[in-house]
Write a structure and sequence with these properties.
Layout: H1 6-18, H2 31-39, E1 46-49, E2 51-52, E3 55-56, H3 57-67, E4 73-77, H4 82-90, E5 95-98, H5 104-141, H6 147-158, E6 165-172, E7 176-184, H7 187-199, H8 206-212, E8 219-220, H9 223-229, H10 235-239, E9 244-252, E10 255-264, H11 275-332, H12 337-369, E11 377-379, H13 381-391, H14 393-399, E12 402-407, E13 414-416, H15 418-435, E14 441-449, E15 452-458, H16 491-501, E16 506-510, E17 516-523
Helix pairs in contact: 1-5, 2-3, 5-6, 5-11, 6-11, 11-12, 12-16, 13-15, 15-16
């Protein structure tokens, strides 16, 4: 309320009191005081006398609209006429009320209409700005299908429009949340803090905490918020000076992809008109991220298909050539029985290699589809190990390697499909034979571990580079110096799939030049 007449202020206050409005009234008596008050925030209504000691109603109107173009300014005066009223309305005043006709009903009606007009204007402006923002952001988000480009577009699009800075966290299934994107309205600040923000990460349980706090609503930033958004205590984010923030979940095609945080370091605060825009933006970001994920999965699938074709062509070519050659010899040559038998053995060995490749491909396909069925039974570790080593005895003899078995006296029977259990161990021992030099020893062990039985196969081969170990059980993966001689690279993938199908775990440890140990666990049989 801006009026230098104490009596008039009392009358206006009395009229406001009878309206039963829950408002806080600030009273000033001059244009200078009004300007100071207007700078302190956005006012729902501005009621001003037309004639002030240091200005006029037009001056109040201009100051109010400079701070808020949708200000509800109502001019109250004992002087003036219809021409002046029309001019003030043209300049943006919501109403012009002569003090002589001021009543509670007249003032209340004017204030309600003024507030409704201001709200409608704000909503229209916010909607138009929001539609433009969403349209521009949609174009930016589809410029590239590369994940990093999508993340960059997502964080850069909103800063300057709805946030002072933005942080994007991706849900990496095995490793939790990863801080993947950061943008700030000030390029210098962004560059200075980029590395520190990238190294930060949300605290464990961030998603559960956010869901309990209603993630769709803005939150005032405090130490608790900073500690949740940065497990290390909010150091780099604290330096950015956030005052208010809103974090929205990113869901794409039914799966959680991550979270997008919008933060403001000063006024204005988030309002109810901006929240629907931010939610729609988060939905567009989630769709773009999921499209990038699907694109990369498709690329990986195509690359895997090409790899399959290369492996199959390579692995079938050699045994097929051997079969063709041996068959030609049998048909074209009259050879003694020992020579003839060697040709037949060659055909049998080559066809066996082809059959194993086809079986491996079929097993991998069934494992990935969840279609491979097992029939667990109670098997002792001794039975499983002895059966497997018997199958590989000839191969070990030809390779000039020996077996050493160490079964702990506390070993217990396990629940495992006998054929699949033998396949798991066969793959690991066969792998060890391939890499153990002539005269070496392969150690096979079994011992209790955390309620399961842990089986291990140790070789005396060249060892594995630490950087390669995380990839050992990936489909078709082979180290460049593995000396696999064109082997398909499916054996360890099948081992992992079969072990996990039984509810166990699998792993490997090695150092270059020190040999390797591959291990897996199987559940102990009940009773």
């Amino acid at each position: 309320m801006i009026d230098d007449d104490t009596v008039d202020r009392i009358a206006i206050r009395r009229a406001l009191g009878s309206l039963e409005l829950e408002v806080e009234i600030t009273e000033v008596g001059s244009l200078a005081e009004a300007r100071e008050a207007l700078e302190r925030g956005r006012w729902r209504w501005v009621l001003s006398d037309f004639v002030l000691p240091d200005g006029r109603g037009q001056d109040v109107l201009a100051a109010a609209r400079r701070h808020d173009p949708h200000s509800s300014v109502i001019i109250l005066t004992g002087k003036g006429d219809e021409t002046l009223a029309a001019e003030l309305m043209r300049q943006g005043a919501r109403d012009y009320i002569p003090k002589s006709s001021l009543t509670a009903d007249r003032l209340g009606s004017s204030m309600r209409v003024a507030a409704a007009l201001a709200d409608a204007e704000r909503m229209a402006k916010a909607a138009n700005a929001g539609h433009r923002f969403l349209a521009d952001a949609a174009v930016e988000l589809v410029q590239s299908i590369e994940l990093e480009d999508v993340i960059r577009a997502a964080t850069r699009s909103c800063v300057g429009h709805y946030a002072d800075f933005c942080v994007l966290d991706l849900d990496v299934t095995d490793a939790g949340l990863r801080r993947a994107g950061f943008a700030h309205t000030d390029a210098e600040i962004e560059e200075r803090h980029r590395e520190a923000v990238a190294c930060s990460r949300p605290a464990d349980g961030f998603g559960d905490w956010l869901a309990a706090c209603d993630p769709a609503m803005p939150m005032d930033v405090d130490d608790g918020w900073l500690g949740r958004l940065d497990a290390a205590g909010g150091g780099p984010l604290r330096e950015l000076g956030p005052r208010q923030a809103i974090t929205l979940p990113l869901r794409g095609r039914g799966r959680m992809l991550g979270y997008l945080t919008f933060a403001r370091s000063g006024p204005p605060r988030f309002d109810e008109l901006e929240l629907p825009i931010l939610r729609r933006f988060a939905n567009k970001v989630a769709l773009a991220l999921d499209n990038a994920r699907l694109y990369h999965e498709l690329e990986a699938a195509l690359a895997a298909r090409e790899r399959v074709l290369q492996i199959v062509a390579h692995d079938l070519r050699n045994p097929l050539g051997a079969i063709v050659g041996a068959t030609a010899n049998l048909l074209a040559l009259d050879m003694p029985e020992p020579a003839r038998r060697r040709q037949l053995e060659l055909i049998d060995t080559a066809s066996g290699r082809m059959r194993r490749l086809v079986d491996d491909l079929a097993d991998v396909a069934r494992l990935e589809e969840g279609a491979l069925k097992i029939s667990p039974a109670v098997v002792t570790p001794t039975e499983l190990i002895d059966e497997t080593l018997a199958m590989l005895a000839t191969r070990a003899h030809e390779a000039e390697v020996g077996f050493e078995v160490d079964i702990d006296e506390r070993a217990q029977p396990v629940r495992v499909d006998p054929d699949r259990g033998a396949q798991i161990l066969w793959n690991l021992v066969d792998n060890a034979i391939r890499f153990t030099p002539a005269g070496g020893t392969i150690r096979i062990g079994a011992r209790p571990r955390d309620g399961s039985m842990r089986f291990s196969v140790e070789d005396e081969g060249p060892g594995i580079d630490p950087e390669d170990i995380p990839h050992l059980f990936e489909r078709f993966w082979q180290a460049s110096d593995s000396g696999n001689n064109g082997r398909s690279g499916l054996g360890l993938t099948i081992v992992r799939g079969l072990v996990e199908l039984h509810g166990g775990r699998v792993g490997a440890c090695s150092e270059p030049g020190q040999g390797s140990e591959f291990w897996f666990t199987l559940p102990v049989a009940d009773g």
